[in-house]
């Protein structure tokens, strides 16, 4: 009896699990459709499904029909098998195998097929074969894939036929069991010349087709030479064009002749005719490999620049085009040393937006002083610009997201995770150029609920969609949602947005299977008005909608000035490895040789509305995608006006372009070959370590007014002086324009690492760093910001002090300003500028007051502070002693 009960219990457990496993694919398709339909993009989902079905049916007919005809033809050779009723299995076997093959193939080629039939022309041809670039993006990949599929299919058919011949042919000799014949003995007795001649007579047409496909494969390989990495440059070189190209053409011809030889080999029963084709290909491979090596070593390398010159020109031109660097304007920067305080005052918009804070220490600070509760988290800090009280102001901004993994373990219940703790709340914003007396950022937006002293308005602070919202949630349930903490109590709310899929009886069942949650199915808190919200993590969300795009690693939050709501903006890229002659580079873990920042995605942080806007309408690749998904993309003209002022030239894209431009700014092939003008990205000391400088968003006057720009300084390879500054404009109507400030070659322009070295050698500044470092604190150096002003350059570096205490925060304590050969360190940017340009009496570096009485007052004030300020107190005492002397 107990045994029966155990069996019943096993069945009760196992049967539902088996059902779930079997129906999960169908459930995923249905729930995916429901989600796409809930965001008004069901047509995007149906494009994929209908295209696969559209391709599947003819492929099924082709593969299933081919197998049916072939197996019936093959069956005639084995009449003795009729006793086993083999014929009746041919049709179902053919249909089932054909369906499986068609299903696999359609799932692999459907998107390439859509790109093929919806392609847009690039309007540029390659220099070798004269084909439009679209051929390499859309036609060539699809044709190569089809040939590879047919080669694989025919290969399996021929292997299968060989096994059938081995097993069922009455010509095969089976040894007496008593001999205990080994497999090797069986093969040696039966797999001989006669066997292969007999096999060839049955499969001659398949083998002929196989050789023709191999010929087509070699013919298409000629186009692959445009991606060759042989020699000094990417793309076809001298040896590729003069040797390898002819080798592939020879292989193609031999493969065609091998197909003809196969027919005669079958007729004449001469296996040697058949073997002549493969033997010839092997022989030619050896000959051409040796020839290519000989030509490369003895013809090209002794006269490389002459032989490769035209191919270098191709590589330079096409690489610049592929990375959109052919449009970079060169602007001569007439560097002068004429900056004075009057010019500083004429550029107040630039000066008032010089960044003296840094996002990395600021992230730690925000999380300690503004997370409010342990379960809130600031994932990263973004930099943007707003008109605040009429002033164009550069700011740091960060979203306060809810991280459920930081809830107390006892609070990690199913209700809390999926019904209660559903969203983050509000933002923190601070200007880039102001800190408090304690060295902490001055906050323009802070606290929960958010408060501000500015004219900015935040009407909808809830964040249901973000960078950390990984789990699904269920809203409009009988359990109210936690909104935000208020003293010792919590304020609760009910979601009023449009996001989500209504959980009727059937949908509850479907999503309980999808999410593998029985509680979702049986919970009494879920009612007929409840909705499930999935794909809340914004990068997962956009990848689910448009996985054919690459996405920027740094989405950023924006406060709309029109409706007071929060939106995420994500930069998206159309990328490829198909651009001929273009050098490959790594971009966010992916190798590519073509990229355009073609799309910007806007996501409503409250209701998840996701819009894809085409931002580069000249990109043929995104135009092709737009032809495929007619309801997905919207033109740039439809981009929300209030968000247009916050679009940024993405750092990921700019950093890639800057890496390419280090070498590919050169147009002269001889200079390029010799590496005479290769640049490095400048280096700096950051937070104690020397590193390659990162691109920075800064504000400075470009034409008539200050603009939000992205910059990166270059130095000559292996040298510290600065040669140029790459600049990308962000503000309309000049968004996306990239230019290079080229500095005079007859002057030494200090690079950031030169500034750092001179700071270390400064007789006033360096000892103060040493003093601070001896008082239980560490000195951290921020980014060196290069600010172009009135044909001059001003260098600014913030200095942070952090106590060795575990919970201490970095405090911005000093600002170093450098102009020409003058170095000033002050407590504020304003004081530093006045001292730098002689607008106040020269006082010891770092002093804020000029008189003995002021220093005594400040010492008294500092003495009443906590022990964490002792390092600053000792510095002031030292300054007092110097004044007394």
Describe, in plain words, how this protein is organized in 3D:
- This protein has 885 residues and is of the alpha+beta class.
- The strands form 10 sheets. Strands 1, 23, 26, 27, 28 and 29 form a 6-stranded mixed beta sheet that branches.
- A hairpin with a 2-residue loop joins strand 24 and strand 25.
How would you characterize the largest beta sheet?
6 strands, mixed
Query: What is the CA–CA distance across the termini?
Result: 103 Å
Give the tally of β-strands. Answer: 34
Alpha plus pi helix count: 25
Give the C-alpha Rg: 35 Å
Shape: globular
Work out the oligomeric state of the chains in this entry: single chain
The amount of helix comes to 40-55%
What is this structure, in a nutshell?
This protein is an alpha+beta fold and 885 residues long. 45% of the residues lie in helices and 20% in strands.
């Amino acid at each position: 009896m107990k045994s029966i009960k155990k069996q019943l219990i096993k069945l009760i457990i196992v049967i539902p699990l088996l059902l779930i496993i079997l129906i999960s694919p169908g459930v995923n398709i249905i729930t995916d459709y429901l989600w796409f339909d809930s965001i008004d993009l069901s047509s995007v989902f149906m494009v994929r499904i209908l295209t696969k079905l559209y391709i599947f049916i003819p492929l099924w007919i082709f593969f299933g029909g081919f197998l049916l005809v072939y197996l019936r033809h093959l069956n005639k050779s084995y009449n003795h098998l009729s006793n086993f009723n083999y014929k009746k299995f041919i049709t179902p076997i053919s249909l089932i195998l054909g369906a499986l093959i068609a299903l696999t193939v359609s799932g692999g080629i459907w998107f390439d097929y859509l790109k093929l039939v919806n392609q847009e022309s690039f309007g540029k041809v390659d220099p070798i074969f004269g084909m439009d670039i679209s051929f390499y993006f859309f036609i060539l990949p699809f044709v190569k894939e089809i040939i590879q599929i047919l080669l694989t299919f025919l290969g399996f058919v021929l292997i299968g036929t060989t096994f059938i011949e081995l097993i069922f042919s009455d010509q095969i000799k089976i040894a007496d069991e008593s001999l205990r014949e080994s497999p090797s003995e069986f093969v040696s007795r039966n797999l001989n010349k006669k066997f292969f001649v007999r096999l060839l007579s049955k499969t001659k047409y398949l083998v002929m087709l196989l050789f023709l496909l191999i010929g087509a494969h070699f013919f298409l390989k000629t186009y692959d030479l445009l991606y060759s990495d042989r020699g000094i440059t990417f793309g076809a070189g001298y040896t590729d064009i003069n040797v390898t190209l002819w080798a592939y053409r020879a292989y193609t011809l031999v493969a065609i002749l091998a197909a003809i030889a196969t027919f005669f080999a079958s007729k004449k029963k001469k296996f040697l005719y058949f073997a002549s084709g493969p033997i010839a290909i092997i022989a030619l491979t050896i000959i051409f490999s040796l020839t290519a090596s000989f030509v490369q070593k003895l013809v090209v390398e002794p006269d490389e620049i002459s032989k490769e010159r035209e191919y270098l020109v191709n590589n330079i031109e096409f690489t610049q085009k592929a990375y959109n660097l052919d449009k970079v304007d060169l602007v001569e920067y007439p560097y002068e040393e004429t900056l004075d305080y009057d010019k500083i005052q004429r550029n107040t918009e630039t000066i008032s937006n010089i960044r003296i804070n840094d996002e990395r220490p600021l992230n730690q600070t925000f999380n300690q002083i503004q997370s409010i509760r342990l379960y809130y988290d600031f994932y990263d800090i973004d930099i943007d610009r707003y008109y605040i009280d009429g002033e164009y102001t550069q700011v740091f901004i960060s979203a306060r997201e809810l991280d459920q993994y930081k809830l107390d373990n006892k609070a990690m219940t199913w209700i809390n995770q999926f019904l209660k703790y559903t969203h983050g709340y509000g933002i923190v914003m601070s200007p880039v150029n102001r800190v408090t007396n304690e060295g902490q950022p001055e906050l323009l937006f802070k606290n929960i609920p958010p408060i501000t002293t500015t004219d900015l308005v935040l009407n909808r602070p809830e964040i249901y969609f973000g960078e950390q919202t990984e789990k699904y949630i269920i809203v409009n349930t009988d359990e109210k949602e936690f909104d935000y903490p208020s003293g010792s109590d919590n304020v609760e709310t009910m979601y009023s947005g449009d996001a989500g899929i209504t959980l009727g009886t059937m949908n509850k069942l479907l999503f309980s299977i999808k999410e593998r949650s029985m509680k979702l199915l049986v919970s009494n808190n879920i009612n007929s008005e409840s909705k499930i919200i999935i794909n809340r993590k914004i990068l997962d969300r956009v990848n689910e909608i448009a996985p054919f795009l690459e996405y920027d690693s740094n989405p950023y939050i924006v406060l709309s000035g029109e409706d007071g709501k929060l939106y995420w903006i994500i930069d998206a890229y159309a990328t490829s490895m198909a651009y001929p002659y273009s050098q490959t580079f790594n971009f966010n873990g992916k190798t590519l040789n073509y990229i355009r920042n073609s799309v910007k995605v806007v996501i409503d942080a409250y209701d998840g509305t996701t819009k894809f806007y085409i931002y580069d309408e000249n990109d043929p690749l995104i135009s092709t995608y737009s032809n495929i998904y007619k309801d997905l993309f919207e033109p740039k003209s439809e981009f929300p006006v209030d968000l247009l002022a916050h679009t940024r030239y993405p750092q990921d894209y700019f950093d890639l372009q800057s890496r390419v431009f280090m070498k590919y700014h050169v147009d002269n092939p001889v200079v390029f070959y010799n590496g005479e003008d290769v640049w490095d990205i400048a280096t700096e000391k950051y937070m104690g370590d020397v590193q390659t400088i990162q691109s920075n968003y800064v504000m400075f006057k470009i034409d008539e007014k200050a603009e939000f720009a992205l910059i990166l300084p270059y130095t000559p390879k292996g040298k510290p002086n600065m040669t140029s500054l790459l600049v990308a404009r962000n503000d309309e109507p000049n968004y996306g324009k990239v230019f290079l400030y080229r500095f005079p070659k007859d002057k030494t322009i200090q690079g950031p690492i030169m500034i750092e070295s001179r700071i270390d050698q400064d007789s006033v500044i360096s000892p103060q760093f040493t003093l601070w470092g001896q008082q239980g604190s560490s000195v951290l150096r921020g980014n060196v910001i290069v600010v172009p002003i009135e044909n001059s350059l001003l260098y600014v570096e913030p200095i942070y002090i952090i106590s060795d205490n575990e919970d201490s925060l970095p405090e911005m304590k000093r600002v170093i300003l450098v102009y020409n050969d003058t170095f000033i360190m002050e407590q504020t940017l304003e004081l530093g500028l006045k001292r730098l340009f002689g607008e106040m009496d020269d006082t010891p570096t770092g002093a804020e007051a000029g008189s003995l009485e002021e220093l005594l007052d400040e010492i008294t004030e500092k003495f009443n502070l906590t022990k964490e300020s002792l390092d600053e107190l000792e510095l002031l005492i030292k300054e007092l002693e110097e004044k007394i002397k």
